[in-house]
Amino acid sequence: MADDATLNSLVTAAAAELMAATAANSAAISQRVLTLLVEALGQDFGFLRHNDHKIGATVLIAEFPPRNADPDPIGVVYFGDADSVFAAAEHLKEPAVMRPDRDHADYQRTIVQGTGVPSVSIATVPLLSGEVTTGVLAFGKYGDREWFAEELEALQTIATLFAQLQARIVADQQLRWLAEHDDMTGLLNRRTLIAQLDQRLAPGMPGPVSVVFFDVDRLEAINDVFGQDAGNRFILTFATVLREAADFPAAIARFGGDEFAVLPHAPMDAQSIFTLALGIHRQLQTQVRSRSYLFARTVSVGVATGVPGEDNASVLLSRLDLATQSAKKAGGARVVAFSPQMAMKKAIRNEVELRLEEPDASNDLVLHYLPEVDMRTGAVVGTEALMRWRHPSLGLLMPDAFIDVAESTILAEKLGRLVVRAACAQVAQWRDQGLADNPTLRINVSAMELVDEGVVERVAATLDEFGIQPSTLCLEITERVVIADIETTQKTLNAFKDIGVQIAIDDFGTGYSAFEYLTSLPIDALKIDRGFIRDLKRDPKRLAVVRSILGLADAFGLDAVAEGVETVDDAKALLELGCRRAQGFLFSRPLSGMQMGALFAQRFVGVEFLRD
Ligand code: C2E
Ligand code: CA
Ligand code: CA
């Protein structure tokens, strides 16, 4: 047997190694300690195994000498079909020396077979964590070997150090799991997904790297009506359904709140990820509806792709955000793929936003004017101010390229103020030049402007400053504006009415409860949406809509203006229906301030073609 001094120095050496070990180097260190022990104790082999009580098996962790078996028949051995040595590992509490029958032993078949050695003796000591046997440390010698109590005691001390290391690794793994996952759903968390994206997008990695992003539509409604718990239950259901729907190798993360992301492990191009997203989306919609029918929600889905070495996580995430927001803006419940135009639009909006901070921002604002005519006579009866933005490199931008800056309240208000001022200044100029006398000026206003405090006083002051009669100004609002905040809107509109300013409903017919506004808001005019003024002679449905809008206007004593008249036929059809006022490319394109002034001076556009 090994003497006391040898045993003591063995324990000390093993302790020095094992106590310094971490999860990362534990395999190598365990291997080293095993080697040391096998050699010092004059053994033929040694192994360290951990118990996995969840699956009821003993799992090989380290061995010496290495057999390098692949697959390894004794890598994982289930207690149920293990021989005596491995079966004992399940609940071993004390060191044990065994001399198993070679005919039955699994390990003998692999270890001893062919060696011609008649038998083997094995000393096994348990790794213990409280009452639980978490593994075994074992040493074997072919032939017989006597084991002394001091030796087994030293091995038990070393086994305890192994058990402590094992516990440290488990704790470490748990901490890491917690740090990488979302507690509520068990999915990966935002930080982990971003880290994975950065790894996947590193130069030289396979690409393209594609992600599907999910944003639940209007979850607040559940929280507001049914409470936070119901909202959480929904999130859990959603996470479960998402995990099932994304049934391919992928990182699935809860990105925060009601946002989720799926990052397939495989590289994917834009087309494949879009197809994949459509499939997941389809499943989500039916599953979510059937499992949480009480608070079924739709979901907005964005997909985007990044190229390793070119894009990083934050670029890819901002693409996903743009795509998802665009799905949301289009009404939700759909999949939208990122397009470079989205980034372009966003960049333009940001630029306009920054530019608006500067004192001379109004220099970039350009107003064009769309004439409004009386189709019976061709008389130019008014004009609508349409905003454009002069961009240093892109030229003149149309409102749809930048106007949804209205998402940012302050910006919409600022833009609105600039428009009102510039349009009033223009009207004053036409008047002072003797080109037009009190023409009707129509200005589009956004929802944000109408809830802006002091908006009525400010407009009144501007009208006063330029000497314009309030009754010649007509503000155009869309039904969406009204829906945003009906109470404040109503108050503001009434205040405008009080100072004599007129109100028109723009894009009439495209909203929902138009009729309600007609009775509750101080409206002067309806502008019939361009979508209805097409093919009137050939499309009886559109014709019927226009007829009923005109009837409505008549019943409420409102002016009706047809928008977007492009053809002679449509103009004629409108006249037959009794609609006299119109705008559209048939009569004129939007004009510069100077051109509009000239047209006012001319007083008429040609409408001979409308008389048969
Ligand atoms: P809107 O108020 O319905 O304005 C009419 C839009 O239809 C204008 O587009 C005009 O150029 C276009 N249009 C007029 N006649 C025809 C036609 O015959 N055919 C076709 N295809 N189009 C026609 P624009 O200037 O691009 O403006 C788009 C929208 O942007 C406007 O729709 C309005 O909602 C918004 N907008 C424009 N200026 C302002 C503004 O100063 N403030 C706010 N809040 N919104 C504005
Ligand atoms: Ca308008
Ligand atoms: Ca319109």
TrEMBL record:
Q: Membrane-crossing residues? A: none
**InterPro entries tied to this protein:** Cyclic-di-GMP_PDE-like, EAL_dom, EAL_sf, GAF, GAF-like_dom_sf, GGDEF_dom, Nucleotide_cyclase, Rev_trsase/Diguanyl_cyclase
> Can you tell which superkingdom this protein's organism belongs to?
Bacteria
Taken from the record, one Pfam family name reads GAF
Domain GGDEF span(s) in chain numbering = 207-340
User: Could you tell me which CDD domains the record lists for this protein?
Assistant: EAL, GGDEF
MF terms per GO, please? cyclic-guanylate-specific phosphodiesterase activity
The record's PROSITE patterns line, in alphabetical order, gives:
EAL, GGDEF
List residues of the EAL domain. 349-604
| Classification via NCBIfam families | GGDEF
User: What is the name attached to this protein's record?
Assistant: Predicted signal transduction protein containing a membrane domain, an EAL and a GGDEF domain
User: What is the source species?
Assistant: Mycobacterium rhizamassiliense
